[in-house]
Amino acid sequence: MKLSLKYYTLKYIVVALLLIIAVWAALFYAFILDEVYDNVDDGLKNRKIQLIKAVYKDEKLLNNVDFEFNEFKIVPISEQECNNRNKFYNRTYYMEYDDDDEPYRVLETCFTDQFGGHRKLVIRTSTVEEDDLIYDLSIALVVLYFFLVLSILFVNGFLLNKAWRPFYAILEKLRNYQFGEKTGNQRQEYSIKEFEQLDEEIDEMIRRNELVFDQQKKFIENASHELQTPLAIMINKIDLSVQDGNIDESTVHLLMDIKGNLTRMTGLNKSLLMLSKIENNQFSATEKVDFNNLIKDVIEAYKDFTDHKGISIEIVERGNFSTSFNSDLAHILISNLLKNAIKYNIPNGFIQVIIERNWLTMMNPGQNHPLDQDRIFSRFYKQSADHSSTGLGLSIVHSIIRQYPDLSIAYRFEDEMHQLIISKK
Known about the structure:
- The protein has 425 residues and is an alpha+beta fold.
- It contains nine helices and eleven strands.
- The protein has helices spanning 5-57, 130-163, 165-176, 193-244, 249-279, 291-301, 303-309, 327-343, 393-402; strands spanning 72-77, 87-95, 100-112, 118-126, 287-290, 312-317, 322-325, 350-355, 359-364, 407-414, 417-424.
- It comes from Chryseobacterium camelliae.
- GO terms for molecular function: kinase activity.
- It catalyses: ATP + protein L-histidine = ADP + protein N-phospho-L-histidine.
- Keywords: Kinase, Membrane, Phosphoprotein, Transferase, Transmembrane, Transmembrane helix.
């Protein structure tokens, strides 16, 4: 699953925080326990000194051979068993109040009484229950962990949203950018230096790309324009040579093949020139265009062609599709859609045009599989191996629609019908 950048970093922060708190909790527990035992041991040592002094003052204390209210006992031992070193250890003893064994810290040492006898002094004191300490500490740490995570989520969400706002603005600008379409030159001010540099670099990259694109369009326009006259002259000379009648049949066939290729080159040249003019916004004048009437006019103009191919056309009017459009571009748009539907139709096929208030659909049967939606409007994409096709018809249609942000075009294959749909946004 793909995550936003801010949540991507947060995921690792949460995991790292869990590990850090776990290690810190182990160290904290060891430190606290050591400090508790150190304090208890100091108390036991002080208690030992007080008891030995008390024994020298009151010999009756030597008879306290078992733990009672004073939490100590004095047991006679031999000289060999006597060791003056303090010995600390933990041990559990039964406590009536809790009706359970509870932990005690015990000091065991040896001293010589006022009569020269050797005595073992054992002092005990209640200490912390480690199980309870671990349980309480764990609860506290779990609460602390969730509190920290929620705090980080809140602070990160607030700070990152604010910090990354310029980045998302730049991303939105790139998302809306269409190659070949001029954008505003308003310079954005950013409080973060890196984002401002990123925005400047992107603007510079777009400017360079647009410059190269404009130069290419200009070159294509000039080259196409300059090629028109030589191509027309060559086709006319071929026609004159064929009409002259002084050449044999094989030469006629050769010249007609050359003429066919030159005618196709002329069509390709005109299409490239048209694309260049459209992308150079040379059809900027607009007026209210009634597409219902325009479609009928274009279909009537192509009637001989459709009759020749045995193709019937049905117009279904469910509304009036009209919008502000350049009248010349509108005619080119409908003509290209109709020619595409005729060219790639089945023998004796049909075309259906459905006109609604916000949609205009032109559909025809043809290949029994859908076309590549990602490439159908690309330049030089051909739906078949037809060599007479320039592969620019639908590219011109797409370029025309791109001139009008309120319109869009889509391709759909449904019920074995290829559909091209122009819709208002």
